[in-house]
Amino acid sequence: MAVAGQDDDVSRSCGAGLLSRIDYLHPMTLLACPSCDMLHDVPDLPQGRRAYCLRCNHMLVSGRHTSLDRTLATGFAIAILIVFALFFPFLSIEELGFSNTTTLLGVAAAFLDGWLIPLTLAVTASIVAIPLIRVALLIYALFPIWRGRPPAPHAARAFRWSEALRPWSMAEIFVLGAAVALVKVADLATIGFGPAFWAFCAAVFIIAFERQITDAASIWSMLDNEP
Amino acid sequence: MNVLTAREAGLVSCHRCELVHDQGVARCRRCHAHLSSRKPYSLQRVWAWLIAGIVAYIPANLYPMLVTRQLGTTHEDTIVGGVIVLADTGAYGIAGIVFFASVVVPLSKFGVIALLAWSVTRPNSLSQHSRLHLHEVIEFVGRWSMIDVFVVALLTALVQLGAAASVHPGPAAVCFALSVVFTMLSAQAFDPRLIWDRPDTSPKET
After folding, report:
1. A1 and A113: one domain?
2. What integer pLDDT is reported at residue A75 of this predicted model?
3. Structure letter (DSSP) for residue B101
4. A155 and A53, same structural domain?
5. What are the sequence ranges of the domains in chain B?
6. Could you tell me how many CB contacts below 8 A there are between chain A and chain B?
7. In this complex, do A106 and B157 lie within 8 Å of one another by their Cβ atoms?
8. Do A41 and A77 belong to one domain?
9. Per the CB < 8 Å rule, is B17 touching A167?
10. B73-107 pLDDT, tens digit each
11. Number of folded domains in chain A?
């Protein structure tokens, strides 16, 4: 029987004798590659070691271990920054004696004009509501564990939704859109940046950081003890 | 390589949390998601969302995206028209980003999803690894098309200067947003496991 290799990328196929191979020295987890469905017996790897699927090279084990301190800290930081950004001026504009200031909610309300209303919902959801809901679900699922208590009811469900909403949280795309919009109006008028703009940019960076430090598999194993 | 898949072993891996169960279990023991060995009706849903996305993309390009009123004159810009205006003012980098996100990405995404869904049922058409790369690319890149919708939202909210200048969204904004959402749903409906379910008989690279 093959022993886990010495290099950083370890994985092994379980082949046919699936159930007969129980290695008491190296407890193993049975994993099916989410990309190609190939079964692997993955040994408990030391932190920092990754495992890839033998057939399609999809990463099976990220080698990261989620630190609850850091993940929860980023979660609270994101929530505070986005809520802060809601209530302060986002951008302001001045030209020929006319001036206008917009907030983040003003941006979302830009389509409150007849049949464009669904777009208001979509924009509100993708830049404010979904990022906040994601963070709230994450904190709900992880905070009791961090306190050393058993997971909250439906904690695993909450974390599943938090992960499923990830592609629909588009704060970072919005910031790039803001950059494009600013270039478009830069010649036309004078632009001022409000505190909400910087808070939102900071939130985007922290969201990207949260993604880097959070390993779904290790959170799943923490939630496994749910009653 | 001797490959045993979860399905061949009588097992099902949860699509959400990857916990492995016996086949026949309805919901994941850990995260309570519905279990299925392959996403149900994957290809049908891929094609349906894809066609919806293409249909919505047509009016998104024909109608104006942005209506600008400046000192009494009204100017309407379509997606491509907006890119040309940007390029004319010398902002080539920004024009490039908008053109890439609003034209290149959606069009190539339609093509790639169609190619992927078509080739999965035809084992000889493309190698499994190139299909896998295609799938990774469309999953990553699709959301970024939303950028133009956000640009319109920001400009509309910001540029409200009475008679001097005001910006309003055009009907294309809704169509374009719908097109992006539909193609995202199409890409999510695709089950990458289908790529591997038929034996690879395409010519091997050496």
Report:
1. no
2. 94
3. I
4. no
5. 1-37, 40-197
6. 204
7. yes
8. no
9. no
10. 888 888 888 888 888 877 788 888 888 888 888 89
11. 2
Q: Say whether B177 and A122 touch across the interface (CB within 8 A).
A: yes
Q: Chain B window 98-127: which residues touch A at a Cβ cutoff of 8 Å? A: 98
Using CB atoms and an 8 Å cut-off, which of residues 9-48 of chain B contact chain A?
A: 9, 11, 13, 15-20, 30-33, 37
Per DSSP, the three-state class of A221 is: helix
Does B84 reach chain A within 8 Å, measured CB to CB? no
Contact A157 B32 (CB under 8 A): yes
Name the residue among A38, A111, A170 with its Cβ closest to that of B143: A170
Give yes or no: residues A216 and A158 share one domain: yes
If you measure CA to CA, which chain B residue comes closest to A15?
Answer: B4
- Residue among A107, A126, A170 minimizing CB distance to B154: A107
Partner residue opposite B157 with nearest CB, options A56, A102, A179:
A102
Q: Which domain holds residue A46?
A: 1-63
- Residue A73 shares a structural domain with residue A163: yes
Query: A168 and A86, same structural domain?
Result: yes
- Which of A133-142, A170-179, B142-151, B190-199 has the weakest average pLDDT? B190-199
- Please give the pLDDT value at position B199: 67
A58 shares its domain with A76: no
ipTM: 0.84
pLDDT per residue over A15-49, tens digit each? Answer: 434 443 444 444 567 888 888 888 888 877 777 78
Domain final residue pick, A20, A47, A63: A63
Name the phi and psi angles at A160, rounded to 5.
-60, -45
CB atoms inside a 10 Å sphere around CB B63: 17
Tell me the three state secondary structure of residue A46. coil
**Planar angle of CA B49, B53, B58, nearest 5 degrees:** 155
Set of chain B residues whose Cβ sits within 8 Å of the Cβ of A119:
149, 153, 169, 173-174, 177
Question: Domain ends where: A37, A63, A89?
Answer: A63
Contacts A193 to B, Cβ<8 Å = none
Q: How many angstroms separate the CA atoms of B116 and B25, rounded?
A: 30
Order of strands, edge to edge, in the sheet holding B66-70?
B73-77, B66-70, B165-169
What are the structure tokens assigned to B172, written together? 């294309």
Residues A141 and A47 in one domain: no
B40-197 classified as CATH 1.10.3470? no
Task: Using the predicted structure, report yes or no on whether residue A201 has a pLDDT greater than 80.
Answer: yes
CA distance A76 to chain B (A): 24
CA distance B67 to B166: 8
Tokens matching residue B199:
């034996």
